[in-house]
C-alpha cells in the first residue's frame, strides 16, 4: 500500500471518526467508552475501505483514457493527474512522450479537454504543495507565460523526466 493510499485513508477516516463521535455523543447524551471505541474502529474501517475503493476506481478509469500518439512518438511516463481549469480540478491522464506533454481528461468532468504542450514551449517547471503538506503539485510555465497547474504523484520525478526529455529534443 502506497503513501497516497494511507493519506487518503486518514484524510477520510479521521474527520469521519471525529464527526461520528460528536454525533453519537449528542444522541446518547455524552461520550462513553463504548461510543469512542466503536466509532474509532468504524473510522479505521471506513478510511481503509474508502481508500481502497478510490484506488480501484482510479485504476479502472485511468485504463479507459486513451491518449493517441504519432507513430514516431514514444511514451516516457504516464500517470493520473488533475489539471486545474479555473476552479475545477479536471481529472484525467498526463502523458510525457519524447516530443510533448499531453493531458487528456476523463469523461466525468464538466470541462472535458485535451491539451498538448510541445517540450520546446516549456519554460519552467515547479513542484508545489497542496494543503500546505502534500507535495503533489506541478506547475508548468510556457514560453508564452501561460501557466498550467496539475496534481500528480511524484511531481519531482515528472520534472526530472520532462527536463531530461527537453534536453534531448534540443
What is the helix/strand order?
HHEEEEEEEH
Q: What overall geometry do the principal axes of the alpha carbons give?
A: elongated
Main β-sheet description: 7 strands, antiparallel
Rg for CA atoms: 20 Å
Please provide a written account of the structure.
- This protein has 170 residues and is α+β, with helices and mostly antiparallel strands.
- It folds into two domains: 3-63, no CATH class; 66-169, PH-domain like, CATH 2.30.29.
- 43% of the residues lie in helices and 33% in strands.
- It has a seven-stranded antiparallel beta sheet.
- A hairpin with an 8-residue loop joins strand 3 (100-105) and strand 4.
- Helix 1 runs antiparallel to helix 2.
- The model has no long low-confidence stretch (mean pLDDT 90).
Question: Could you outline the blueprint of secondary structure elements for this entry?
Answer:
Blueprint: H1 3-28, H2 33-64, E1 75-85, E2 88-97, E3 100-105, E4 114-118, E5 122-130, E6 134-142, E7 147-152, H3 155-169
Antiparallel strand pairs: 1-2, 1-7, 2-3, 3-4, 5-6, 6-7
Helix pairs in contact: 1-2
Index terms:
alpha+beta, 170 residues, 43% helix, 2 domains, PH-domain like
Outline of the structure:
The chain is an alpha+beta fold and 170 residues long.
